[in-house]
């Protein structure tokens, strides 16, 4: 299995770590000997891994060599709205966009992907995605494998529907495209050489619609150590890790010398979805095979306590908002670029009550923050959902109370997005815009709205 290269960076005189990414056209062979037109960053498919440490000022020179506008969103990153790479920051063909921000959040497996309004599904499906790993030099060593590409391996899992002539087909179920060509880091039938007793996989669901339930063919127990926004408080022994589109999990797998075991996606538990909706609930796939060497280097034991999450409690919230999700609408409205749906005061802790009214899958991704799931239909979340999250699966007809705090950045002119990360749903309108403003301030006019007023 190819491991994405670490992106080179240069440190500017002011100390900023500067990366470059170029979105470009290419070709990939998903089927033996057959070229499929794909898009990638700095290559034919996917992109290099960006890596930075907490406290660093980073910048990315994003160049668009595609024949149409795109954008690059830093999924899971806490940063100013104007740097977020959403639909208000599209990059024209031939142009370069240079967002810059200070990394200030716990170590985590984040990722980047396009977010142009109405075309996100197509751009991700064609291959534009990459990892953005954050490190925290001040965090204690908790015994996790950490040699990139050796015992600490990023794996983006995606599915595509590839015709015999190589073209990417776009036949859609209600949830979007459910393809049968499942890849790990862009290849089918991937195998990963293992040279250590423990291997850490950073799993990313980079699919546009499909939810995976990862486990091993022999049903062995492994350990989930992190969710979207970083480490869980304690390791969670499990046999399955379920990820909806956009979600991540870090897992540690113990291997015996010489053994081989396949990572599979088993039938996901999507909740009470209606019969007759194709949602991938019955699909199973092999994803990759771990192949251990005859002798393995020793690995440290994973600590019993991984981190102390900062308190983020529903009872500390000063604002509660309701987001009902149905069809392609949030609270009865489709996304409009010129309408601000919520105005949040900087520093506020809020509860967002999110309910999927439908009998089909949705999920919810909130930009700028890492939230906490306070409860699901009043019950405490299961341990894998108790950590820092930026994307959560929404089972049909259940209510998720999410707690989040909007620190640091206020900008009345530029909205963040909240949306379903089933990308067809997002493109068709299941998205809303919120701005974070200074306390007492109001949202400014956004481009084309013809309404609202500017703050003083
Ligand atoms: Cu949806």
Automatic annotation (TrEMBL):
Oxidoreductase listed as a keyword: yes
Classification via Pfam families: Cu-oxidase_2, Cu-oxidase_3
GO molecular function: copper ion binding; oxidoreductase activity
Domain Plastocyanin-like positions: 23-137, 323-437
Swiss-Prot/TrEMBL keywords: Metal-binding, Oxidoreductase
SUPFAM superfamilies membership: Cupredoxins (SSF49503)
Entries under Gene3D superfamilies matching the protein: Cupredoxins - blue copper proteins
Domain of life: Bacteria
InterPro entries documented for this protein: Cu-oxidase-like_N, Cu-oxidase_C, Cu-oxidase_fam, Cu_oxidase_Cu_BS, Cupredoxin
Entry annotated with the keyword Metal-binding: yes
PANTHER family, alphabetized: BILIRUBIN OXIDASE, CUPREDOXIN SUPERFAMILY PROTEIN
Family, as annotated: Belongs to the multicopper oxidase family.
Protein name: Copper oxidase
Species annotation: Cellulomonas shaoxiangyii
């Amino acid at each position: 299995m190819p491991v994405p290269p670490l992106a080179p960076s240069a440190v500017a005189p002011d100390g900023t770590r500067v990366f470059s990414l170029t979105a470009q056209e290419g070709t990939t062979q998903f089927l033996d000997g057959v070229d499929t037109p794909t898009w990638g960053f700095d290559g034919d498919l996917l992109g290099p891994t960006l890596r930075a440490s907490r406290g660093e000022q980073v910048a990315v020179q994003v160049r668009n060599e595609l024949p149409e506008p795109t954008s690059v969103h830093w999924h899971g990153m806490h940063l100013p709205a104007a740097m977020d790479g959403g639909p208000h920051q599209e990059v024209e063909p031939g142009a370069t966009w240079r967002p810059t921000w200070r990394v200030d959040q716990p170590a985590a497996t984040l990722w980047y992907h396009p977010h142009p309004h109405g075309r996100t599904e197509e751009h991700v499906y064609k291959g534009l995605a990459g990892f953005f790993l954050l490190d925290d030099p001040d965090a204690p060593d908790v015994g996790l494998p950490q040699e990139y590409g050796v015992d600490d391996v990023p794996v983006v899992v995606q599915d595509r529907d590839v015709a015999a002539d190589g073209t990417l087909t776009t036949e859609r179920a209600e949830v979007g495209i459910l393809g049968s060509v499942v890849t790990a880091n862009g290849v089918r039938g991937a195998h990963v050489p293992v040279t250590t007793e423990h291997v850490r996989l950073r799993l990313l669901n980079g699919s546009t619609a499909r939810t995976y339930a990862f486990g091993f063919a022999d049903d062995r127990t492994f350990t989930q150590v992190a969710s979207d926004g970083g480490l869980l408080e304690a390791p969670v022994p499990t046999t399955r890790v379920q990820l909806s589109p956009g979600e991540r999990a870090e897992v540690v797998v113990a291997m015996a010398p010489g053994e081989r075991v396949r990572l599979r996606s088993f039938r996901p538990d999507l909740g009470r979805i209606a019969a007759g909706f194709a949602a991938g609930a019955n699909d199973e796939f092999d994803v990759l095979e771990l192949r251990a060497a005859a002798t393995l280097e020793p690995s440290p034991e994973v600590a019993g306590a991984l981190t102390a999450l900062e308190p983020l409690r529903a009872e500390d919230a000063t604002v509660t908002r309701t987001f009902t999700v149905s069809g392609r609408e949030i609270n009865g409205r489709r996304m409009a670029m010129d309408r601000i749906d919520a105005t949040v005061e900087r520093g506020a802790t809020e509860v967002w009550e999110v309910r999927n009214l439908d009998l089909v899958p949705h999920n919810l991704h909130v930009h700028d923050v890492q939230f906490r799931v306070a409860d699901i239909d009043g019950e405490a979340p299961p341990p894998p959902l108790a950590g820092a999250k930026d994307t959560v699966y929404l089972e049909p007809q259940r209510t998720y109370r999410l707690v989040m705090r909007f620190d640091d950045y206020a900008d009345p002119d530029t909205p963040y997005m909240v949306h379903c990360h089933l990308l067809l749903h997002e493109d068709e309108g299941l998205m809303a815009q919120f701005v974070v403003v200074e306390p007492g301030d109001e949202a400014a006019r956004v481009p084309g709205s013809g309404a609202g007023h500017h703050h003083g």
